[in-house]
Hints:
- By secondary structure, the chain is mainly alpha-helical.
- The protein has helices at residues 2-30, 35-60, 65-92.
- It is elongated.
Amino acid sequence: MARNVEYEQLLKSYSKIQKENKKLRKMLTQENISTLEVLVQECMKYNREQLKKIAWELQLTEYDNENVENVIALMEFFKNVWEDLNSMTELEK
């Protein structure tokens, strides 16, 4: 008997969460905003700011082997990110 009560409570809770989720999705859709869009915009903004700082730092410091290695590592990182994003979007086509 107690399990039935718990089960009913879980169903009600689940239903309430589903309704709230549906309402939030509708709000986002009506405002033409998607979570992915926001994440992409934030990522691009953050990376632009960081790349500006890196560019300034490179201009202000001596261009030694360690700096070159760091820039090469950053380039490899972005290459990997590009490849990962490219493979994700290829799957969608």
